[in-house]
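Batch manifest, entry 17 of 40.
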Amino acid sequence: MTDTTHETAVERLTRVTRDMTHPNQRPRDAATMILVDRSGPTPKVLLGRRHARHTFMPDVFVFPGGRLDPDDRLLPAAGALDPRIEARLMQRVQKPSVHKARALALTAIRECFEETGLLVGSRRADAPDNGGRWQDFASNGCLADLSGLHFIARAITPPRRPRRYDTRFFSADADHVRHRVEGVTGPDAELIELVWVPIDEARTLDMPAITGVVLEELEARIRAGLGHDLPVPFYRMLNRKFVCDRL
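Output type: structure tokens
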């Protein structure tokens, strides 16, 4: 997005009515995956609708994602992150680390699988079985692959919200999905349905303000060629107003 568009985005984020009466807490590291289908004339994105019983952001459309798990630092991958992504992931953090940058990208892939059943990676007959939360990758002959990821945006939940996350938004083309495990979404799951929606139509769905802002950023980046040299917006609240820095 242009500087003017980013200014409009922060104004829109600032205007959102929020309950900010909770005790303040440190944001938890998190990552989100935006799957993009560019096979047709209009790019489509995958969104999931959260269960209405969720206490945090119920019954809205979101990208699959969640918190960084300590084990995400230890997992093998078929390909490496682009060095320019690694460099941007290490900006504006207290203890910059290539290992943490890599772990955040793996978090996005793992959370995408856990919430949608979609495995983003490469087919590997020798995929190691690390057990635990990554066992399904090996059992389906897949290994996470970081080489096809793009870093789209970063955002921190405002202070005094019931939950706070420092979220990195990644994207990957839908053709990087190597396998689908059925039955992951449904009436009793975290995401009750998945939809592929053209980006311009997706913004009309009921979604958190930051999700809409990131969709606009993704659309602008696709038009610009989705290159790794593009600066990455970083949204956070200072003195009750959102600001947008560039990574």
